[in-house]
Amino acid sequence: MPTADRQLTSVDRVVLKRVMDLVIPPDGDFPGAGGLGLAEQLERSSQRYGRLRSGLLSVLDAMSLDIASRIEGGFAALDEERQIAALKTVETNLPAQFGEFVELVYGNYYTDSRVHERIGWVGRPPQPEGFDLEPWDPAVLENMRKREPFWRQVG
Amino acid sequence: MTEEPTLHQNEQPVIAVDGLLPPDVVDILIVGAGASGAVVAWRLAQAGFSVVCLEQGRWVDPALYPTRDRNWEVLGRHEWNWDPNKRAAPVDYPVNDSESEITPLMFSAVGGSTIHWTAHAPRFHPSDFRVKTLDEVADDWPFTYDDLDPYYDLNDMMMGCAGISGDPAMPPRSPRPMPPLPLGEDGRHMAAAFERLGWHWWPSDNYVNSMPYGGREACNYCGPLGFGCTRKAKSSTDVNYWPEAIRLGAVLKTYSRVSEITVGNDGRATGAHYFDRAGNVHHQAARSVVMAGNGVGTPRLLLMSKSDAHPDGLINSTGLVGKNLMFHPYSITTGLIPGLSKTWKGPMGNILMSQEFYETDLRRDFVRGYAYQLNRGSGPLTTALGGAHEPVSWGGGHHEDFSERFGHNVILAGIGEDLPEEHNTVTLDERLTDSNGLPAPRINYRLCENSKRLLDHSVKSATQVLEEAGATRIMANPLLRSGGWHLMGTARMGEDPERSVVDGWCQAHDADNVFIVDGSVFVTAGAVNPTPTLQAIALRAADYIAHERDDLKG
Fold first, then answer.
1. Given CA atoms B500, B503, B508, B511 in this order, what sign does their dihedral have?
2. What ipTM describes this predicted complex?
3. Which residues of chain A neighbour B1 with C-beta distances below 8 Å?
4. How far apart are CA B517 and CA B527, in angstroms?
């Protein structure tokens, strides 16, 4: 379990950016989570929620201990297939922490306005504008109103 | 994800008092300012009783709800989470739920869990009050649907109900004060699928304004009702009952956590000790005490209130306080329908309901039944994190998985009738405490075989109707663990003092000046959201006090 006050090193940050791109990869010409430049923001936002911070540090620590990475001279030196394999090993061995890390990546990616535009979300909070719906139409109940009452009678 | 705190963190008085200063000894002391406490405060203040309510939480300014924040979905998972263990605010008490198949959800504030509910407002069926007679399980209630009907009506007016008469699944009833909320494209689509199968559906009753009502705005269909309503279009007791109760003279003290109901030598309640925000202990004297702290908080406080007269906890001579805990077990079946494109548009919860499988049918392998609530999709982050299902996959298939779900997901929540079982309990934890050092509640809860079979049936039927609706992919969660919105049965009512804690008027068998008006008193659970029923019961109990207990008025 990493200590809460552990700070990210420059190597951590390189690994983080790459791992973010593996978690949410580029979509055509649209960058992945790392390529969007969200790593710094992710690091800052993790400070606010201890559970997610712990997930982030656990995953980074586990990546640094990955044997293939150590032999090859670091995670960044591995090819993509082996990077994914290393990440899946972490997911298997630390499922809760990995889930927290994924929540952190998704939390930063899916609150980004560029992503909102890309996926067709309105890109604003639900309020104060809200949304429009077609007005209530009582005609939709025409068939249901023909059904006989079927609630259970009580003597 | 922003880093600035958005919760209302302004310094407050140690005890914030709304209303005039109360007399030294009040007629009615209410514990808890949520759905039912507000009801009793209003009704009894109206009847001329002096009323004080102690609430451990605070007033929440609707302008500060997270739906105006760009990070509303993140805030909803943390500061505004429905689970007190995840929210972990000082005004919350933690719950040891490690031995429970369902985690209890609640909110400590004026308005209680009506702050974060989705305001679905169905009524129990007449059969729900006669379960023992009809199906030979559990027990009958000490009153009938007809006894409660006028109080349902009164509560619908106070809370503001949007809905429409003529539902063949329910007895005839008075008109609601507002028409239903619009069904939306997804609601109409699913209604048609139910009809093609010959299955019942009906627009949900909701305590959400479909037009301006009660001095509050109409809903603008923003979606996430569960994070509070900045427009006050969704009803919660902090915006309807409480302002009226305070105007009528009720006094509401926030940041006031009750630690013990005090009693005299005769075993009758004399008031309550409570902590203020700074940790100072006070005593509020009262001629009677009304418990309204929910189906977990109320038994917790009763069990903490031991005395010579009540050695096993207040009004617990039967040992039933804390037993027979019922949740509504939920199954969640989600269909991805390519023909729908923006299922995040509109109120998230309870577009329509189906009660096709509500009543007992001996051809099935379970008794009692369940209802469906049709719910909508949500925002991008909630979709990515899966809601009640597995998160969107990471890696190569991520974008395809996300696109398949986002805007195309409709959710059928199967809400099942739980049965009371004494081994499902609320007790006091031996180690875990709240911020005042008071013991936290511990939940022991196992789903019974009947409920498992019922939930399995609900998933199969939901799959059938979603396929009929054109779903190309269906995801099923047969038991939503984080679905303990409804907390019931832990101080059940009944006419037999050997087998119940309170009588049909919510008055304790063991002390005639102690009343319980929250979900603790439920004998059975029905298969619908309980709040209209518990509020109607609270109104009925308050009328009993007003008309029959003049001795409690100073």
1. negative
2. 0.95
3. 41-42, 45, 48, 107-108, 111
4. 20
Domain extents in chain A = 10-123
For each of the domains in chain B, give its residue range(s) and CATH number, in order of start. Answer: 16-552 (3.50.50.60)
B234/B109 Cα distance (integer angstroms): 16
Q: For the CA atoms of B75, B78, B80, B84, what is the dihedral angle to 10 degrees?
A: 180
Residue B277 pLDDT level (bands cut at 50, 70, 90): very high
Q: Say if A116 is an interface residue toward chain B (CB within 8 Å).
A: yes
Q: pLDDT exceeding 70 applies to what percent of chain B?
A: 97
B5, pLDDT greater than 70? no
Closest CA to A62 of A35, A95, A23, A38: A95
pLDDT score recorded for residue A60: 93
B231-253: per-residue pLDDT in tens? 999 999 999 999 999 999 999 99
Question: Is residue B203 within 8 angstroms of chain A, CB to CB?
Answer: yes
Residue A67 CB neighbour total at 10 angstroms: 9
pLDDT tens readout for residues A105-140? 999 999 999 999 999 998 899 999 999 999 999 999
Residue B349, phi-psi category: left (phi > 0), alpha (psi -120 to 50), beta (remainder) = beta
Whether residue B107 has pLDDT greater than 60: yes
Burial category of B40 from C-beta neighbours within 10 Å (exposed 0-12, middle 13-18, buried 19 and up): buried
Chain A residues within an 8 Å CB radius of B127: 151-152, 154
Residue with tokens 């670091």: A74
